[in-house]
Design goal:
- The chain is α+β, with helices and mostly antiparallel strands.
- Helices cover about 20% and strands about 40% of the residues.
- Strands 4-5-2-3-9-8 form a six-stranded mixed sheet.
- Strand 8 and strand 9 form a beta hairpin.
- The longest helix has 14 residues.
- It is globular, with a radius of gyration of 15 Å.
- The chain starts with 11 loop residues before the first strand and ends with a strand.
């Protein structure tokens, strides 16, 4: 007899690099309650753009993704555009930044900060 298994995909994948950056920022600010909020707004050269901010509290309709002591918040409106995405943190010649890899985006701009579906 086989066992039925349920697979529940993660709302977002948060990379090791993103987790490490958020942990460092929490230490710098001496605030264990800080959470990274990822959101989508209209604008940018491709129609939508990604945004990032830090908050202490979550809203009732937020999706919370926790990993290794770090919480990422996504509001209910942004969730539909970000489901299945990966949140990363990169350091390069252009500086350092949080970055979204979004499988739902049909086009992105050159800097990766905006997209369309």
């Amino acid at each position: 007899m086989s066992v039925i298994q349920t697979f529940t995909p993660s709302a977002l994948t948060v990379t090791d690099s993103a987790v490490a950056k958020v942990k460092n920022l929490k230490l710098e600010e001496e605030n264990d309650n800080l959470k990274l909020r990822v959101f989508v707004t209209g604008g940018g050269c491709s129609g939508f753009q990604y945004g990032f901010t830090f908050e202490e509290d979550s809203a009732e309709d937020d999706t919370l993704v926790s990993r290794d002591g770090v919480t990422v918040l996504v509001d209910s409106l942004s969730f539909q555009y970000l489901a299945g995405s990966t949140v990363d943190y990169e350091v390069g010649l252009m500086g350092s930044r949080f970055l979204i890899t979004n499988p739902n985006a049909s086009t992105t701009c050159g800097c990766g900060a905006s997209f369309s579906i």
